[in-house]
Design brief:
This is SipW-cognate class signal peptide. By secondary structure, this protein is α+β, with helices and mostly antiparallel strands. 13% of the residues lie in helices and 31% in strands. The model has no long low-confidence stretch (mean pLDDT 86).
Length: 181
C-alpha cells in the first residue's frame, strides 16, 4: 500500500497543520476507553433497643413536700426510685430547674439511699431557671429490673432569700435522662 503524497507545492505550514491533526486525532482515539466497576454489600442483622426510664414506676412522677417552707426550713426526705423498664442497660443523669422564684430560692440535697443520710451526691446545690446537670454517669442500671433509690430534700437558706417569695408556691423539676450503656 502506498502512502498518499502531498503535492510538492504545498507549504510547510500546511504540512505541519496536517501532521498536528493526525497526532491530535490519534490521541483522542487512544483515550476513549472507559473502565468502571461497582460492588454492593449488605450489613449483618442488627436490632434496636428500647430505653424506658421511670421514676417510681411512672414516666412523669409528681409529689409534694409537706408543710410550709420558710427561711432555714428543710423538707422531709422524698425517695425517688429510678428504674430501668427497657430492654437494654443504661446510665443516666439528673438535672434540676424551677420556673418559679420560690423554687429558685431553694437548694437541693440528693443522696443514693432511702433516708438522705448517706454520702451526698449533691448538697446545697442552687436551683436555677434553666436545667443544670447535678449528677451524670449514674448507673448502669440493668435491663428490665435495674433500679437506684435517690433521696431528695429541699432547703430554703436562712438568709439571702427575697421577701417577694413569701406566700407563693412553686415547683422544682428533676429530669432523668438515660443513655444506653
Amino acid at each position: 500500500m502506498k502512502r498518499p503524497r502531498i503535492a510538492e507545492g504545498t507549504s510547510r505550514r500546511v504540512r505541519a497543520v496536517l501532521a498536528c491533526g493526525i497526532l491530535l486525532g490519534t490521541g483522542a482515539i487512544g483515550t476513549t476507553a472507559l473502565w468502571s466497576t461497582s460492588a454492593a454489600t449488605v450489613s449483618g442483622t442488627f436490632t434496636t433497643a428500647a430505653l424506658d426510664i421511670r421514676a417510681n414506676d411512672e414516666k412523669s412522677y409528681a409529689f409534694d413536700f409537706s408543710g410550709p417552707v420558710y427561711p432555714g426550713y428543710t423538707t422531709a426526705p422524698r425517695v425517688i426510685n429510678v428504674q430501668n423498664k427497657g430492654a437494654t442497660a443504661f446510665t443516666y443523669r439528673v438535672s434540676v430547674s424551677s420556673g418559679q422564684p420560690v423554687g429558685r430560692g431553694m437548694q437541693l440535697k440528693m443522696t443514693a439511699d432511702t433516708a438522705c443520710s448517706g454520702t451526698a451526691i449533691v448538697s446545697a446545690h442552687p436551683i436555677t431557671e434553666n436545667p443544670v446537670v447535678v449528677s451524670a454517669g449514674r448507673g448502669p442500671l440493668s435491663a428490665g429490673t435495674g433500679a437506684e433509690a435517690l433521696c431528695v430534700q429541699l432547703t430554703m437558706p436562712a438568709s439571702g432569700v427575697s421577701q417577694s417569695v413569701a406566700g407563693t408556691s412553686g415547683t422544682v423539676l428533676l429530669t432523668f435522662d438515660a443513655t444506653s450503656a
